[in-house]
């Protein structure tokens, strides 16, 4: 519109100039004379007519070239308009696809997103959302296809596609594939918080304690977890490594795993108990007997006492003598009394064993003590008493089972 106004204003100015020139020439009774010659051709006219023709010719040529410019630009404008229409449709499709995905209409969301992805300004978002929709409806092949297309739209150092792929693998319990993807992402950005956290979760689900132990320094250095979470994770990781080594029933593997654990983790009673139990089960109780005694001096623990009583040693009397020294400090500890009764049985001191076990039973009745007393009575050929103790042990075991079932039946227990 503005160009048309400029054109009309210029034309009016040209007409005004031509009219002014004609009026000035008329005042002098001289219309002017113009002669144009070209070869054998010549053109004669008045100055006024020539000026008017010149103005008209100029505007005619100007209009012609403007029209030609418009015609030449017309295909490009049509193409640009088509692109704009497709782009606007793709944006509308993206919004519709996101709404469908939010409403759980996975098939509809996938269809509309893929149809308009090629014309979108954000094709990556189309493909990633379509991949989520495909997985949600169980089409894992389509999911992988869309993820591949998204990767083609993304740069090599872009973590978005990899993170989405790993997240989708984890939601499908495909933890090994998730680890493979996350390991590549970690090589690109070693300190990326979300990558490290997802790796930590995947390793935990797989029970890969070795991989998790290697990841621990990065988790701590990059502050992905709180300090308390790191300590808890360290405890779970190293205890998991010890349990895995214990399954091999190999003393060397257990010892190697124990040596790799930091000192501040070794000092935790639960970790130490796993190590001691594994060594005893592997037949290497003699090598850790002194360590158990030292640990009991630092931290009195009922589980550790039970482990101490299970050590197969060549010097059982010395083992009993060591345990009896603890009576001075813990005279009424039922677990210690049970341990003393068991050790006394080992050395054949049946009367002393019965005394320790009866005292333990009077303080705290337990299935283990009843079983040991029953075995002691059998050795003494007192079958009636043995049956009584075995019966009492069964009753205690039944009560414990019923109590556990009642706890599980409580409304809060399922949530816990």
From TrEMBL:
* Topology relative to the membrane: Multi-pass membrane protein
Q: Name one Pfam family in it.
A: HemY_N
Which pathway or pathways does this protein act in?
Answer: Porphyrin-containing compound metabolism; protoheme biosynthesis
Please state the span of the N-terminal signal peptide per the UniProt entry: 1-28
Tagged with keyword Signal: yes
Q: Note the superkingdom of the native organism.
A: Bacteria
Sorted alphabetically, the keyword list is: Cell inner membrane, Cell membrane, Membrane, Porphyrin biosynthesis, Signal, Transmembrane, Transmembrane helix
Which stretches are annotated as coiled coil? none
**What subcellular compartments does it reside in?**
Cell inner membrane
Return the InterPro entries for the record: Heme_biosyn_assoc_TPR_pro, HemY_N, TPR-like_helical_dom_sf, TPR_rpt
User: Where exactly are the transmembrane stretches of this chain?
Assistant: 47-74
Domain HemY N-terminal span(s) in chain numbering: 32-138
Function field: Involved in a late step of protoheme IX synthesis.
Q: What is this protein called?
A: Heme biosynthesis protein HemY
Which source organism?
A: Methylomonas rivi
């Amino acid at each position: 519109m503005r160009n048309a106004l400029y054109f009309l204003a210029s034309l009016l100015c040209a007409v005004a100039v031509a009219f002014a020139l004609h009026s000035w020439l008329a005042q002098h009774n001289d219309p002017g004379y113009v002669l144009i010659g070209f070869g054998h051709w010549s053109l004669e006219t008045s100055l006024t007519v020539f000026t008017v023709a010149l103005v008209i010719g100029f505007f005619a040529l100007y209009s012609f070239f403007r029209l030609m410019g418009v015609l030449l630009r017309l295909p490009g404008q049509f193409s640009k308009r088509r692109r704009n229409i497709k782009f606007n449709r793709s944006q509308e499709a993206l919004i519709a696809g996101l709404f469908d995905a939010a409403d759980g209409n996975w098939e509809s969301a996938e269809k509309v997103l893929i149809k308009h992805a090629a014309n979108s300004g954000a094709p990556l978002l189309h493909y990633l959302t379509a991949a989520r929709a495909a997985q949600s409806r169980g089409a894992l092949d389509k999911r992988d296809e869309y993820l591949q297309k998204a990767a083609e739209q993304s740069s090599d150092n872009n973590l978005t596609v990899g993170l989405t792929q790993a997240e989708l693998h984890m939601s499908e319990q495909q933890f090994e594939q998730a680890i493979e993807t996350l390991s590549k992402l970690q090589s690109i950005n070693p300190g990326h918080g979300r990558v490290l956290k997802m790796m930590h979760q995947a390793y935990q689900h797989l029970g890969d304690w070795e991989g998790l132990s290697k990841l621990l320094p990065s988790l701590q250095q990059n502050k992905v977890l709180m300090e308390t979470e790191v300590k808890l994770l360290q405890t779970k990781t190293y205890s998991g490594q010890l349990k895995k080594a214990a399954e091999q029933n190999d003393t060397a593997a257990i010892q190697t795993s124990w040596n790799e654990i930091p000192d501040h983790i070794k000092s935790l009673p639960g970790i130490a108990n796993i190590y001691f139990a594994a060594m005893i089960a592997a037949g290497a109780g003699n090598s850790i007997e002194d360590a158990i005694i030292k640990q009991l001096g630092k931290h009195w623990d009922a589980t550790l006492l039970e482990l101490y009583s299970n050590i197969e040693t060549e010097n059982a009397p010395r083992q009993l003598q060591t345990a009896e020294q603890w009576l001075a400090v813990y005279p009424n500890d039922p677990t210690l009394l049970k341990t003393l009764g068991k050790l006394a049985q080992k050395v054949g001191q049946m009367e002393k064993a019965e005394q320790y076990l009866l005292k333990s039973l009077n303080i705290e009745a337990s299935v283990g003590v009843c079983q040991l007393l029953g075995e002691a009575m059998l050795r003494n050929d007192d079958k009636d008493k043995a049956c009584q103790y075995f019966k009492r042990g069964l009753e205690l075991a039944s009560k414990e089972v019923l109590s556990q079932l009642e706890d599980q039946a409580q409304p809060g227990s399922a949530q816990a």
